[in-house]
Amino acid sequence: MTVGFALCGSFCTYASVFPVMAELAKKHRVIPIFSHSAYTLDSRFGTAQSHIDRATAICGQPPLHTIPEVEPIGPKKLLDALVIAPCTGNTLAKLAHSIADTPVTMAAKSHLRNGRPILIAVSTNDALAGAAENIGKLLCRRNFYFVPFGQDDPIKKPTSMVADFAKLPQALDAMMEGRQIQPILL
Q1: What is d(CA 108, CA 116) in angstroms, rounded to the nearest whole number?
Q2: Containing H/E element for 64?
Q3: Residue 186 has pLDDT above 90, yes or no
Q4: Phi, psi for residue 117 in degrees, rounded to 5
Q5: Looking at residues 33-57, what average pLDDT do you find?
Q6: How far apart are CA 99 and CA 93, in angstroms?
Q7: Do 129 and 158 form a contact (C-beta atoms < 8 A)?
Q8: How far apart are CA 100 and CA 113, in angstroms?
Q9: Is 158 exposed, middle or buried (0-12, 13-18, 19+ CB in 10 A)?
Q10: DSSP symbols for 109-130
Q11: Rounded Cα gap, residues 164 and 176, in angstroms
Q12: H helices within the chain, ranges in order?
């Protein structure tokens, strides 16, 4: 199976996301896809170049990071599945409103044209606020599946939620059988 693995700019989750990418790469062909933020921004969680290098080492190829690079995903049927982990509130909003103006959202749009599934691993500080509407829209939409997620710090960040990235491989297997792993909310 060929899996597109798209990273958005929730840098604090990368320490949990990269090991899952590596686990998937042992069993599947994994094509890394980076958002503009993931590809260009340094943060206290590492440099953009260190993340690019890590994904390249894991997947055996550099990340796709431009709209022209990801647009052929659909027409050429390059992926069996697309994982977006972490999926930020910004990307959730764009997906919910069919906006394809980033490498990750264009990869999703292109992949969906073939009726193929997308697995979303939420990571956003406003999941129980502004992003809740967009999560709800995608939960009802065909071909969208979610990695189980829950509040990561209900006291200090009461509207923040993050996926349980350790459940991503199990959620991917279920998605490929046309099932949503349960429970979705942890």
Answers
A1: 9
A2: none
A3: no
A4: -85, 155
A5: 97
A6: 8
A7: no
A8: 13
A9: exposed
A10: HHHHTTT--EEEEEEETTTTTT
A11: 19
A12: 14-27, 36-40, 48-59, 67-70, 89-96, 103-112, 132-139, 168-176
Query: Is-contact 89 51, C-beta < 8 A?
Result: no
Specify the amino acid at residue 131: A
Residues 165-183: what's their mean pLDDT?
Answer: 97
Q: Maximum Cα–Cα distance for the chain, whole Å? A: 47
Question: What is the Cα–Cα distance from 78 to 90, expressed in whole angstroms?
Answer: 25
Q: CB neighbours (10 Å) of residue 101?
A: 10
Task: Tell me whether the omega of the peptide bond preceding residue 68 falls within 30 degrees of 0, making it cis.
Answer: no
Please tell me the distance from the alpha carbon of residue 83 to that of residue 108, in angstroms, as a whole number: 9
3-state helix, strand, coil split of the chain in percent (to 5) is 40, 20, 35
> Phi then psi for 90, rounded to 5 degrees?
-65, -45
For 101-152, the pLDDT digits (tens) are 999 999 999 999 999 999 999 999 999 999 999 999 999 999 999 999 999 9
- The Cα-based distances of 145 to 42, 81, 148 in angstroms read 30, 11, 10
The closest alpha carbon to 169, from 6, 61, 25, 67, belongs to: 25
